[in-house]
Amino acid sequence: MASPGQRKVLFVGWDAADWNILHSLMDQGLLPTFSSLVSRGVMADLQSMDPMLSPMLWTSITTGHVPDRHGVFGFIEPGPEGKGVQPVGSYRRKVKAVWDILSGEGYRCHQIGFWATHPAEAINGISISNQITHPISAAGGRVHLPGTISPEQYYEDLNPLFVRKREIGAAEILAFAPKAKALGAEEDPRLPILAENIAEAATIQAAATWALEKEPWDFAAVYFESLDQFCHEFMIFHGDQRHPDLAERDHEIFSDLIHAAYRFHDLMLARLLEIAGKDTTVVLCSDHGFLNWKEMNPILDPRHAGISSWHRREGVFVMAGPGVRKDEHISPVHLLDVCPTLLHAFGLPVGQDMPGRVVPAVFETPEKETRIPSWEDRDPRRVVDESHFQTAFQSTTGAGGAGALTKHFEALGYIEASAGQAPEAIAEQAGLELIYNHARSLQATGYGPRALPLFERLVRERPYDSHFLFDWVRCLLACGYLEQARRVIETSFRDEVVFPPMAAYLAGRIHLNLGNRDQARLYFQDALEADPHNLEFHLQLGVCYTRLKDWSNAETCFDRAIEINPRFAPAHLARAHLYLKMHENAKAADSGFVAVDLKPNYGQAHYLVGIALSRMGWYERAIQAFEFAILHEPALKRAYHWLATLQRNVGNDPQKAKRYQEMWKAASAEMEVQNRLLDENWAKTTPLPEIPDSGTRRRLEQEEIAKFRRPEPGTSGKSFILVSGLPRSGTSLLMQMLEAGGLPIQTDGIRQADPNNPLGFFEWEPIKRVPQEPELLDEPGLEGKGIKIISALLPHLPPPHRYRVLFMMRPIAEVAQSQIRMLERGGESPEIEREALERQLLAHRHSCLQYIDRAPNFEVLRVPFRRLFEDAPQVVGEIEKFIGSEQLPLAERMLSVIDSRLYREKQDFE
Predict the structure, then answer these.
(1) Which residue has the higher pLDDT, 760 or 331?
(2) Residue 789 main-chain phi, psi, to 5 deg
């Protein structure tokens, strides 16, 4: 065991870092720091876990425990008293993180930015929570949430560490996207998002360098979420090939942005390593990789895919430093192996309750791994002040995290307080998501029987939700409850002549396991007919044909899956198995090698390659393949039998043969127990929850999500002209221009002109009630008039109508300043600090524009506020063309309304 002060370890987390991009940039010499780290250390794939959600994965990485043990199951949880939501905090974590363990042993530790670390717990060093990037407003100006740092004596030091979005100017933006110079910063919502991502990464870097230089340390852990953020926003543009739905100019501007983000992180890493010093051991990893849009499932639209749909199962692991092997590519490291390996680097034992292992391949002279029962039994205990968390978030989240912004809009008088979804409903949904994530993680980590009651509870709560139902059936299948799974499927779809594709697929798997191969084939064919691009459907139909000895159709199924996605390793594995059945050993070896190349830790693929090579007489290579198979999947009992036979007959190593024979017997005995349990389970059934038939489920689902599902758009025949934008973005000026141009205006004059809008607000008060009273737009005489509506109400407009929207685009900094001035004139103080207000306004505007861009019943023209004063004739011409000259017979008079004195709060371009 190394004494405090004798050894230093720096642990860096790059969320979503992907080897494909890293290798490409290293080959070009564009990641000098990362390349140097790899060349003087070891590199490996890091195997991730399901579900691939960052708070769960990073908590597993830093604790060495599965989610069921550490207690973190997602991003958010129900808020106080079951209303609204709030981020999952550190008090949810039930076990010690590596910095807690090391602190208890006397080591000085710093932790910066990891998930679920707020409020910051007391450690022997500095702990900065993940709320460092989200300051709030309070008396006296911008501050961070209570509990953002421990010890609290450094609380005032946090403010200067926060990098404001407004500090990210044109030069920084152009460093990431040089061709963006042609875009207006406020006309393209992606540029402010890019600035926000840069600022958050820079904030973590500033906090990390401050902590590393402020106090001495033995262990430091720094987490950057920013690569994942960059990828989710901009991966759709990445690469030489343009996505068919993207504009050519957009692809040209942003195609190299992901590479720029990686180079930015390489620069930040260089500074961290400079502070750490050359004798520091460095571990860098990612929790998962990130797919290019071309690699995604073809049935998914990558622009709208769920957050985890983009995640590659293989992440990154790199380790370098004293005693670490040099320039080595080692076998994959499991996510749960990281914490044991970090402990081992300090000469500390691993908890017996940690399922991971020390990775011996990283060390030049590996020392034997030692174990203790658990680190949880050792003092000191974790110290977390839960009151910090509860009081801090009650005032800042509200419904879906937007409560403060909603209150801000209400204070300005733009929306009614009753608008929006009930906070109880939001809290209920968040609670169900936590249960769902918990159940999925249990199933993924081999605790399927414990997941079953959770899935069943979800089905009871939401019997209409097919995702819950299908995952329950999958879990029943994995646990061997075949009859129960069959009953669930048949009961759930008893009124269906033809099952929905996923139900048919699961029914096929059930019957295949029951030995009803012809029945299984029919179900798989039904599933594929409905969903011909589903890789898993092709795979399972091919497996069914293989068991039916219909080699030709089986090969066609596997080939089709590979044609859809050449990187789908299970299809290559299944094809290798098919060729072995056909005694085409060379083809089997080739397919197995492809599967291994795609997934190096694929034990089954190594095993099939070993069989093929043995049959071909390549015994030495076969032995290597079987050894790789048991390294990655120790439960492959037949691999031990092959190794024992080969070592006895051709390897001339009777000692190894004897050892493998004993391992085969032990593995066989264990598998017999597992198979006996599965055999006992297959016929077991328990009372089912009340599962409505398909028709009833569809009706319940429609009733539940009516507020999210909108009627067929644009079917009423009515069309409305709307002026919208953020409050204080120039909508009143535009309304005055339209009136001067001859367009009738719908206004009631209730809100009189005042110093904020000296020429009037041009509002129609009833429009604020449109979420509760969509029939308002059925009033006669509204069509053909200009109606002003705040951006927050656009998604609540009745879908049957069509809308032409003039959306004002004013620089966010000016909008925020104007809103603050308006409140101050009214004797009120803003509830949101300036920086946070700008961030939320930007996100809100981006969300609204995304909605109306995608909605088929909306047409939108972005009207740049600044250009009204700089190039008015051009902008007026665009407005006239958009609305129609017949609606604006006096369009030339619109220019007379534009008065530069109305342009207050003007700021320089950022």
Answers:
(1) 331
(2) -145, 135
